[in-house]
Amino acid sequence: MPWEYNNTYSPTSRFAAVRTIIATAVQEGMDLHHWDIQGAFCTSDVNTEILMQQPTGYPLPAGQCLKL
Fold first, then answer.
1. Are 65 and 51 in contact, with CB atoms under 8 Å apart?
2. Rounded to whole angstroms, how far apart are CA atoms 53 and 31?
3. At CA 10, angle to CA 56 and CA 42, rounded to 5?
4. How far, CA to CA in Å, does 2 sit from each of 5, 37, 51, 53?
5. What DSSP character marks residue 67?
6. How many CB atoms lie within 10 A of CB 21?
7. Predicted confidence (pLDDT) per residue in 3-15, tens digit
8. pTM for the full predicted model
9. 18, 21, 49, 60: which could join 54 in a potential S-S bond, CB 3.0 to 4.6 Å?
10. CB neighbours (10 Å) of residue 47?
11. 3-state DSSP call for residue 21?
């Protein structure tokens, strides 16, 4: 099974690009909408097993791991 632990992608935008989009929207009289989809992966269908490390400060009994 091919594991891709280091193959992650998180799209980000530069502040100058955001300012340009906002300025263009204001000049054209457009409405802007923003969605915060930080937890979108938690509600999507996943066809593979996902294991994670225990967050600091939360004890986990020996011999157990977390599975999403």
1. yes
2. 41
3. 60
4. 9, 27, 15, 20
5. E
6. 13
7. 565 666 666 788 8
8. 0.40
9. 60
10. 4
11. helix
* pLDDT class of 23 with cuts at 50, 70, 90: very high
Contacts of 68 (CB under 8 A, 6+ apart): 42, 46, 50, 51, 52
Distance between CA atoms of 40 and 26, rounded to whole angstroms?
29
Specify whether the CB–CB gap between 52 and 68 falls below 8 A.
Answer: yes
Q: Which of 9, 25, 29 is nearest to 17 (CA)?
A: 25
CA distances from 56 to 38, 40, 60, 62 (A): 20, 23, 10, 15
